[in-house]
Design goal:
Largest sheet: 3 strands, antiparallel
Helix content: 40-55%
Keywords: Membrane, Transmembrane, Transmembrane helix
InterPro entries: N_methyl_site, Pilus_4_PilV, Tt1218-like_dom
Radius of gyration: 26 Å
Number of helices: 3
Pfam families: N_methyl, Tt1218-like
Protein name: Type IV pilus modification protein PilV
Shape: elongated
Number of strands: 6
Order of helices and strands: HHHEEEEEE
Distance between the termini: 88 Å
């Protein structure tokens, strides 16, 4: 028996190749998103570890919290310290200077920046550690500001940062 269908087999093959190509493109998109999520979670873990270490240093040297805030505001002084407090005795202010130098150096190696500010919306003088990476600045922003961790007391969902409240 002769089959009068000519070329239909080729169309079926082309349609199946198109479906296969779409499936492969979908899988590639899922892989890309998974890699993006892995990178984001890795950055968050590193930021959490930096913030946790800094919070412990703040608890130990609570009397110098204003020195920590001042040192973190001066970008030129952040990665240098006048004394190496792991080898010699230091005052509370010198220890704060040393801690900030170590913290900012560790953050810079990871492509992150650090800040310590009063938490927005709190009246009890709590401080917040801001650790940001990417295009985000570790600061509180106003309603029109872009590129900050927060915007008018709310976390900016487009930012790449971590905010940790310390007592």
């Amino acid at each position: 028996m002769l089959n009068n269908q000519k070329g239909v087999g080729l169309v079926e093959v082309l349609v199946s190749l198109l479906i296969l190509a779409l499936g492969i493109m979908g899988f590639a998109a899922l892989q890309y998103r998974a890699m993006e999520a892995t990178s984001e979670s890795s950055a968050r873990v590193e930021a959490i570890n930096l913030a946790r270490g800094f919070a412990e240093r703040l608890r130990v040297n609570r009397g110098a919290i204003e020195t920590y805030k001042t040192e973190l505001k001066k970008a030129t002084d952040q990665q240098t310290s006048s004394k190496i407090c792991s080898k010699e005795m230091c005052s509370a202010a010198e220890m704060a200077d040393f801690d900030v130098a170590q913290l900012t150096l560790k953050a810079a190696v990871r492509g992150m920046s650090v800040n310590l500010e009063n938490c927005q919306g709190n009246s009890d003088d709590r401080s917040c550690i801001y650790i940001a990476w990417g295009d985000t600045a570790p600061t509180n922003g106003d309603a029109n500001g872009e590129g900050n961790c927060t915007t008018s007391t709310a976390y900016d969902p487009s930012s790449t940062c971590l905010i940790m409240e310390v007592y």
